Amino acid sequence: MKTDIEIAQEAKMRPIMDVAEDLGISEDEVELYGKHIGKISLGVYERLKEKMDGKLIVVTAITPTSLGEGKTTMSIGLGEALSKLGKNAIVCLRQPSLGPVFGIKGGAAGGGYAQVMPMVDINTGFTGDFDQVERAHNLLIALLENHLYRGNRLSIDVNQITWKYVMDMNERSLRNIVVGLGGKEGGVPRESGFDITTASEIMAIHALSTSLMDLKERVGRIVIAYTTEGKAVRASDLNAQGAMALLLRKAIKPNLIQTLEGSPTIMHGGPFANIAHGCPSLIGIKLARKLGEYVVAEPGFGADLGAEKFFHIACHYGGLKPDVAVLVVTIRALKRHGGIRFRQLEIVNVKAVEKGLVNMEKHIENLKKFGVPVVVCINVFPKDSQAEIDMVTSRCRDLNVPASETYVVVKGGEGGLDLARKVVETIEREDSKFHPLYDVNQPIRDKIDLVSREIYGASGVEYSSEALNSIKQIEALDLHKVPLCVAKTQYSFSDVARLKGRPTGFKIHVRDVKISNGAGFLVVLAGDIMTMPGLGSRPAAEQMDIDEKGRITGLF
User: Quick one: average pLDDT of 531-547?
Assistant: First the structure.
């Protein structure tokens, strides 16, 4: 089979205005970025706000391997398949970060014949939204540093500054730095550091805002530091929100692209799911539900991260009620959870698949706890045996959960028709009774304990002294009545990546809790999760190249 980039380079794309017109969007409501990318005016939602919402399909996954299980690919393929069934379907995806693109995981444009286009542009900068988020974030810290240098009239405690710098690249050496060196003219010396742009609270705000004015108000609420008396210092105290919103005025508009088969996709927002809330933008999802009959939304990583945060954060602020959850499963991931090492994953092993099914079962249980119907999507790889696939479908029958063998990588929408039919049948047959698992007004530790026990299966939670002090401070400031965003490894239900399957008897280790007051959630740092990743021993960037004719190789 051809590589992803070979397939993408041979594809014939429709002019993006043709895609927009199919959705009922006029030429003066689209800002073009070349022939094949457009930004949609926020006025489209206002024009359609009285229209009935389309059905919301949330695509999530079992606990993944480091290779990824094709959740984005399955989302795109499902959108293509729904279109083949004659449904007006729109896919909503997050934008890719350059860190994973040039690191190890890869981009976020799908794979094989279930890709979104133009793939190269999407994975290498797209419409500049991440650049604008990065600039707005770093503008705020520049204003903060200048405030310290100019006399610090707010009495900010330089040891309690929580706002770091960001860049959209994996760079471990910048996790901890010292700034303000170089004498009197170099600023105020202090310790700081960098996070990756996708971990920025600005990125979360970008994905959770419902309008430009909502974004500006949220930006103003950001807590960036504390005074020597322990009072919270907000971005609005530096009069930063106006300039920051100005920088984000174009980034707030949803991006319209297309699949390989020409069906519409809104790709907007890019928070990571292991260190942030991992959901496509609310603006994009809410707009898609006005434009389409079915909307396929893909939060990141496994259901214990992306789906849980989608349900507790995005649905809370967006007033969303998912109609069905699609759980992506791969034979290789089940084998991994069954105790098989990477180098043996392609060897047929039905017993390992059976042993690993406990991971799938726990994710199904979790999704059903939210009152959402579930459909299992088996992303079939060439070396998967029918006996292994049958083991999965048999277990799904026992659990009374529809399951579909899906081949969108090699067949595009045609390979997802069975999945699309089962999703539509489930929506028509079973009403969603969606509800969150906790009340946002509960004490912080009660919410952490509930998520740890109910979603992860932990026996309890252990807190560092730093975390306990942070919780005490947050509750004293009355800033705790918001959802949680747990930052932990994506490779296990626990906060220890090596614990596979469905571990029991473990505890979640909370090392700190941080306020994302503008985004409207608390970030719970669990285990050894890093907010600035590093590159691996063989970064993907080393395999990439471009020739004199502009032909790119090595990009998937």
Answer: 88
How many Å apart are CA 217 and CA 212, to the nearest integer? Answer: 9
Maximum alpha-carbon separation in the chain: 71
Q: Is 527 left (phi over 0), alpha (psi -120 to 50) or beta?
A: left
**Averaged over 102-125, what is the pLDDT?**
86
Task: Tell which residue, 521, 517, 532, has the closest CA to residue 241.
Answer: 517
Positions of E strands within 118-199: 156-161, 165-167, 177-179, 190-192, 194-196
Task: Give me 120's structure tokens.
Answer: 């190269």
User: Within 13 A of 500's CA, how many CA atoms are on the CB side?
Assistant: 20
State how far Cα 56 lies from the chain centre. 17
Q: Which residues make up the CATH 3.30.1510.10 domain(s) of the chain?
A: 130-239
Burial group, residue 489, by CB count within 10 angstroms (0-12, 13-18, 19+): buried
Which phi and psi (to 5°) does residue 423 adopt? -65, -50
Beta bridge partners of 297: 58, 92
Q: Which residue has the tokens 């009660």?
A: 446
CA 511 distance to own-chain centroid: 22
pTM value? Answer: 0.95
322 prior amide bond cis, ω within 30: no
Calpha distance 26→21 (Å, rounded): 6
pLDDT in tens, 365-386: 999 999 999 999 999 999 999 9
- Beta-strand (E) ranges in 339-407? 374-379, 403-406
Q: Strands, DSSP E only, in 189-247?
A: 190-192, 194-196, 223-227, 232-234
Distances (CA, A) of 68 to 39, 326, 358: 29, 16, 19
Per the structure block, which two tokens stand in for 141?
């810290």
Nearest to 495 by CA among 333, 274, 318, 324: 274
Numbered ranges of CATH 3.40.50.300 in the chain: 4-127+251-429
Domain 130-239 = CATH 3.30.1510.10 = yes
In the chain, residues under CATH classification 3.10.410.10 are 444-526
The domain 444-526 having CATH identifier 3.10.410.10: the answer here is yes
Show the 3-state SS of 385-431: CHHHHHHHHHHHHHCCCCEEEECHHHHHHHHHHHHHHHHHHHHHHCC
Taking Cα atoms as reference points, which of 336, 399, 387, 330 lies closest to residue 362? 399
For the record, the structure tokens of 395 come out as: 């277990």
**CATH 2.60.120.260 for the 4-127+251-429 domain, yes or no:** no
**For position 106, what pLDDT does the model report?**
58
Please check the confidence at residue 501 and state whether its pLDDT lies above 90: yes
Report residue 401 as tokens.
């959960």
Torsion 456-457-461-464 (CA) sign: negative
CA atoms of 486 and 315, how far apart (whole Å) = 16
CA dihedral over 247, 249, 253, 257, signed as positive or negative: negative
Least confident of 99-103, 237-241, 282-286: 99-103
Mean pLDDT of the residues in the chain: 95
Supply the pLDDT for residue 9. 87
Tens of pLDDT, residues 31-66: 999 999 999 999 999 999 999 999 999 999 999 998
Neighbour tally for 507: CB within 10 Å: 14
